[in-house]
Amino acid sequence: MQKSFIELIENSIKDYWDLPALTDYKGATHRYKDVARQIEKLHILFEQGGIKKGDKIALCSRNSSNWGITFLAILTYGATAVPILHEFKADNIHHIINHSGSKLLFAGDSVWNTIDHKHMPALEGIIRMEDYTIRHARTETITAAQKQANRQCEKQHAGHIRYRREDPDEIALINYTSGTSSASKGVLLPYLSLWSNLRFALDQLGYNPGEKLVSILTMAHMYGLAFEFIYPFTSGNQIFFLSKIPSPRIIAEVFSTVRPHLIVAVPLVIEKIIRNQVLPKLKRPHIRLFLKIPLINKPLQARIRQKVLDAFGGRFKLLAVGGAALNHEVESFLFSIRFPFTVGYGMTECGPGISFDHWQTFRPGSCGKAVARMEIKIDSPNARQIAGEIIVKGENVMKGYYKNPEATAEAIDPEGWLHTGDLGILDEAGYLYIKGRSKNTILGSSGQNIYPEEIEDKLNVMPYVSESLVISENGKLIALIHPEAEAVKRSRLSPEEVYKQLEHSRKMLNRELPAYSQISRIRIRQEEFEKTPKKSIKRYLYQPQPSL
């Protein structure tokens, strides 16, 4: 089997030439042939603009059809894509651009309004994502190249499409795991990883040309990129992109309008829809009574199942959940009504697939079994009963971290096993159960990774803060703060004044943080946090217990 990711992209464009491919919700639709013509224009722009094979090209904007087209153009040309979250602060964007050595930046309007090209001296040009006009050019080369692309590109036919064939070990993209300059690591993902993840989805999910999907997760992270863009594009699906923040209300509206066939989401989105639209109707006394009567149980459960299906558009065949653990009570409820959902596990360093299972054989509480071409082991004396670190190996695994051999050596051992930092067990059938996340990552509603330690480091140096802990509660970030008693005493502050000082610090800190990682409120603790012998806070003691 030829393991060419680009060949699969090329075949999808040829095979689905006249079908709708990418739609900006309540906006324009690009057919597959339109995508091909835009790719050709961008290839001319790159070539005439002096972009060489292997050069880095960054993308930083909200999800859109043009984001997807630009990504495909970069890879089929032979450059390396550098996706960046549009919510990052300007200094984070500047750092990633400079660290990656990107030559071009495709930036959305909201990003352009915050960045400063003077802080990114190696950039040849900045291009507006919305219409591909030139925002900034270091020389006249890029401007002239864009004019040439508009003149030179001719109408194409499917038979004319012929993209290059990549080396499987060639780097396709660099995906940064964090936006702060001190902790950011650029994950080097080869084409082999993209191909393996895509091949798995094509073999297992089985969606048909013309079916629809709503892109909810950011494409700047691998989960959204792999399974809400690359996979449906190569399946001939129509992908709808949201121009607004995907709140539960907006998602519910889009689901009812588009009625998608496949839904890929993080747990927070699913849980909010169920809590806001389904559970209030099920808490009526007579429904609770009927559920306890065996003869009525099954028919009533069928009606409940349909209500939940309707909340997600009514005709989808699978809801795939990933990125974090699904609330146990929500999962039990969905399983009890035979709802078509499954929970997978992955990480950026695996592009992202590690484990998955079809919903009809999925075991509640698990994250499925190892995906094709991947192995999972537990670093434990008894992998079935004693939790240990999850380590993985296979074709999905990254090449390493860009310009960071120390971090690479720490993550990938000499035998090629990637150490995930997560804890789990494997049952007798190979199902993986996550038992703890040693990295403490919090997942934002659109799939963004939030690193609480980074926020806490900033909080802990602010006035009157002795120590802090950032937790997620109902989709909001809460800062638990133990005040510095001596400083409070010296300043002779009342409890009300202490709160005002800390609240002021919260607002000041939020000015430095991306919107998705800002602190919603603070909660003062008079006692110190309980610690381990190594003086680390026992985080699990302070995480809220999920409930319906």
Verbal overview:
The chain has 548 residues and is an alpha/beta fold. Among the domains are: 28-166, Rossmann fold (3-Layer(aba) Sandwich); 451-541, GMP Synthetase, Chain A, domain 3. 36% of the residues lie in helices and 23% in strands. The strands form 8 sheets. Strands 4-3-5-6-7 form a 5-stranded mixed β-sheet, sandwiched between helices. The two termini are 47 Å apart. The mean pLDDT is 90.
**Strand residues, percent:** 15-25%
Gross geometry: globular
- CATH-level-2 architecture of the domain at 28-166: 3-Layer(aba) Sandwich
Structural class label: alpha/beta
Question: Key features?
Answer:
Rossmann fold, 548 residues, alpha/beta, GMP Synthetase, Chain A, domain 3, four-stranded mixed beta sheet, five-stranded mixed beta sheet, 17 helices
Compose a concise summary of this entry.
With 548 residues, the protein is of the alpha/beta class.
Secondary structure: elements and pairs:
Layout: H1 5-15, E1 20-24, E2 29-31, H2 32-48, E3 56-60, H3 65-77, E4 80-83, H4 90-100, E5 104-107, H5 109-112, E6 125-128, E7 134-137, H6 140-152, E8 171-176, E9 186-190, H7 191-204, E10 212-215, H8 222-234, E11 238-241, H9 248-258, E12 262-265, H10 267-282, H11 285-291, H12 294-311, E13 318-321, H13 328-336, E14 341-343, E15 345-346, E16 353-356, E17 369-370, E18 374-379, E19 388-394, E20 400-401, H14 405-411, E21 418-426, E22 432-437, E23 442-443, E24 449-450, H15 452-459, E25 465-473, E26 476-483, H16 485-491, H17 495-510, E27 519-524
Parallel strand pairs: 1-11, 3-4, 3-5, 5-6, 10-11, 12-13, 13-14, 26-27
Antiparallel strand pairs: 1-2, 6-7, 8-9, 9-20, 15-16, 16-17, 18-19, 19-21, 21-22, 23-24, 25-26
Helix pairs in contact: 2-3, 2-6, 7-8, 10-12
